[in-house]
Amino acid sequence: PNMESGYGRADIILIPRNKSWAGYILELKRANTNDIEKEAERAFNQIEDKKYETLLKKNGVKDIVKIGIVFDGKKAVAYY
After folding, report:
1. Which single residue of 17, 37, 44, 53 has CA 20 to 30 Å from 23?
2. Sorted alphabetically, which Pfam families does this protein's record hold (predicted)?
3. Sign (positive/negative) of CA torsion 50, 56, 60, 61?
4. What's the domain range around 14?
């Protein structure tokens, strides 16, 4: 299940056992337009806008990697 964090639910949040390691937030989308690079950027911005990093920060994680990924068939584009 998606865990609530900030103002909504991120698709994937990876919380490291060792708080000195990086935590990861991934927002996944399916392509709706021909500009999947722009859609990947929007997915990344959703992470920022909805403050999905709140859960990681509450768990003491300082290094947070945010990645927006858009899938178009077998092709994927990431923005980070």
Report:
1. 37
2. PDDEXK_9
3. negative
4. 4-79
Q: Using the Cα atoms of residue 55, residue 2, residue 26 and residue 8 in order, give the sign of their dihedral.
A: negative
Identity of residue 24: Y
How many other C-beta atoms are found inside a 10 Å radius of the C-beta of residue 17? 5
Q: How many domains does the chain have?
A: 1
In degrees rounded to 5, what are phi and psi of residue 48? -65, -50
pTM as predicted: 0.86
Q: What percent of the chain has pLDDT over 90?
A: 84
Residue with tokens 């947070």: 64
